[in-house]
Amino acid sequence: MLSNKTYNEIHIGDTASMQRTLTKQDIDLFGLLSGDMNPTHFSDAYAKMLLERHKLVGHSMWGAALISSLLGNDLPGPGTIYQSQQFDFHNAVELGDNLTISVTATAKNNADGSVVFDCRVVNQSNEEIITGVAKVKAPTRKPIDAGSPYAAMQLHRKAAFKKLISIVKEWAPIATAVCHPCSKEALEGPVQAALSHLIDPILVGPESKIRELAERLTIDIRPYRVVDAKHSHDAAVKAVALCRSGEAEALMKGSLHTDELMRAVVPSATGLRTERRISHIFAMDLPTYPRPLFITDAAINIYPTLEDKVDILKNAIALAHALKISQPKVAILSAVETVNPKIPSTIEAAALCKMADRGQIEGAIIDGPLAFDNAISMEAALIKGIRSPVAGEADILLVPDLEAGNMLAKQLAYLGKADSAGIVLGTRVPIILTSRADSAEARLASCAVAVAFAYWQRENQLTAKNV
Q1: Is cis: bond before 328, omega within 30 of 0?
Q2: Tell me, what's the pLDDT at 148?
Q3: Which one, of 74, 283, 324, lies nearest residue 158 by Cα?
Q4: Rounded to an integer, what distance in angstroms lies between the CA atom of residue 39 and that of residue 441?
Q5: Which of the pair, 67 or 463, is modelled with greater confidence?
Q6: Which of 280, 317, 299, 289 shows the shortest CA–CA distance to 418?
Q7: Would you state the torsion angle of the CA atoms of residues 466, 251, 449, 97, taken in this order, to the nearest 10 degrees?
Q8: CATH 3.40.718.10 domain residues, the chain
Q9: Those residues with Cβ within 8 angstroms of residue 319's Cβ, 6 or more apart along the chain or in another chain
Q10: Does residue 434 register a pLDDT over 90?
Q11: How confident is the model at residue 149 (pLDDT cuts 50, 70, 90)?
Q12: 6, 52, 390, 396: most buried, per Cβ within 10 A?
């Protein structure tokens, strides 16, 4: 139901707030609507050259528009008429910044029914972005209906990650070894996850470098343990050792290459290997798909064998169970939906399905080969006459090889506007893989996925042998 506060209902001191993360979609759409195509908003190279910033900068008026949104939607709400505003812009908003927008009523004018609001926008580091005042004419009437169809007139916003984060943050945080957090994103990510009550980070890397970075970014790391390491390779070894000893229940990649971290993970004697093949899973939150979509493997196994795919599949099924999907539907992807001896992935799909029939792979409904359209579209499957318990309702997509999986995941991210969380399983503890391009919410979602899996491991008392 639409609601508002009329002029008579508003009291001095009434306040409202909301949060919003700047995404690439926000920048693109605001630029198109406003006509402001300043290249610092669209090109990393220009942002660095002209502003000495390492990533895209949002439009200043985008932040101001969020104040208008809060006034028009919440306080006073529908029926509000903007009269004037006076804002000071203190800092730029960078891609991925999480803003908190707040308005507080400070004055009322009975003569014209206007209300003055103090306005403030801060980022995740509590740095002021915008401050000022706005004057609006408050509504005098309450809405008389539910607002339909107006409530639907908005861009579809993804919800799966928000729901997961809201659930997991109610649990006790898990100790997480953060390997080499020596860049802005690598340090902000785990600290933000800690402030969101998801993890208890152990910062592993050159201590002086980490503390210098934290001071420069005004990030308070005093609550967190810091383990000194000489360099990134040493940090990887020490972070893995913390996980082997049980001091940490998850491992998080910082500002080092994935292959450098994995070199410390893989050794049987000193790393985190189990009897299960190590694999990567993208958990994707799409605006055009009604459930989370898991894609595996798109980052670790280049050309997996049939035996590898059994383990990759088991890892993905375990993650789905950890996220309370008791019977995930698995689509084994190929270019076609029929078995063709000339296409090896169709043969392997058929073998995996038969293995599931015989109980060699449990805990999921598995079908394949399926082409991508049949896996995610019931309509496409019906048109082709495909009868499948998975078609159109897939939770997990098992791809033929890394190239196919990586391209699919990135197409969904950049063309389908999906958020993605990355995690590596088949190891003693879940490994959180994040990218510099990830949004703040995606980084939190990666942590939330790892926390959920760590709790599932505890509940099921899994050992390194059978994880």
Answers
A1: no
A2: 45
A3: 283
A4: 25
A5: 67
A6: 289
A7: -170
A8: 275-426
A9: 281, 283, 294, 423, 425, 449, 453
A10: no
A11: very low
A12: 396
Tokens of 20: 């919003």
Right CATH for 275-426 from 3.40.50.2000, 3.40.140.10, 1.10.3720.10, 3.40.718.10: 3.40.718.10
Q: Which amino acid is at 76?
A: P
CATH 3.10.129.10 intervals, the chain: 8-152
| Number of residues that this document lists for the chain | 467
Q: Which two tokens stand for residue 395?
A: 């939770």
Distance, CA of 454 to CA of 467 (rounded, Å): 11
Long-range CB contact pairs, 206-210, < 8 A, 24+: 206/182, 206/230, 206/231, 206/235, 209/182, 210/181, 210/182
pLDDT tens profile 77-101 = 999 999 999 999 999 998 888 999 9
CATH class of the domain defined by 8-152: alpha beta
Identity of the amino acid at 406: N
Contact 201, 193 (CB under 8 A): yes
Concatenating the DSSP letter of every residue in 262-318 gives: HHHHS-TTTS-B-SSPPEEEEEEE-TTSSS-EEEE-SSS-SS--HHHHHHHHHHHHH
Q: How far apart are CA 373 and CA 408, in angstroms?
A: 12
